[in-house]
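discrete fold record:
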Amino acid sequence: MTSVTALFSPVEDDLRVLNQNLRELVGARHPILFAAADHLFQAGGKQLRPAIVLLVSRATMPDRDITSRHRRLAEITEMIHTASLVHDDVLDESELRRGIPTVHSSFGNRVAVLAGDFLFAKSSWYLANLNDLEVVKLLSQVIVDLAEGEIQQGLSRFDADLSLEAYLEKSYYKTASLIANSSKAAAVLSGVSPEMANHLYYYGRDVGLAFQIVDDILDFTGTTETLGKPAASDLRSGNLTAPVLYALEEQPLLETLIAREFAEPDDLDRALALIEESNGIERSRTLAAEHTRLAIEHLECLPASESRQALTNLADYILRRLY
């Protein structure tokens, strides 16, 4: 299967510059804070979000080079994403992220929370310096959405009555909002029409939802080694995702196990078996495929280019991670 980094070939040089700039942008005066903030940048993430920003930037500027503001937007996007990961790991009490110790397990909760806050503050400062009010509003909304998503997830733990619509809304807030709004922001910086900017917002929204649904499927079908964290960790913590919600429609016993929060020794194993016996994973694949299809449709507004093709291939890649 094509690697995700190969898909980013049109912006490979741009991403190399981004990686060089991120450590300089952090620029924390306190060594511990700098080390904590720098920890995840070194963890070798896919950099999906800044790559999409850069690809959208190039796809909407086919006859010109992208600007320094496009590049800074990609860096801001990665900083916001990294800040959210630091806080997520504290809330989820995760020991591993991408196969390495999380910031809070290496530096403690206090430093991790401060490091996340610091990255959010830094990203907001650089965002304000783009001097584009619409872009500031788009990315500021993302930070609000990330908090809203965490609140919704915290309030719906072990809630077997959670609807698929509520799950998708939470997935939008936690994952898709950043991709959607940063894609639109890149288009705004390119000076495209409002209609094209909205199409790129919806591209990012549907790519983000497909990405989250696929991640939620892989939580059941992947291994600890491939996931970089324990398998079935979402279910264990009471975070009910698409495969579980679909399985609940077929397996009444599953609701009982969830309601008692897997209190008995074999409850989690029984729940996993019930999900595997159901059509939950297959129906979730269908849901992810639908969002992938919608995302690709929204790219029809763009002129043909290597970057547009990369955005299409990226949407396809997200789905192929399942196979």
User: Anything to note?
Assistant: The mean pLDDT is 90. The two ends are 9 Å apart (CA to CA). The chain has one domain: 4-320. The chain is about 75% helix and 0% strand.
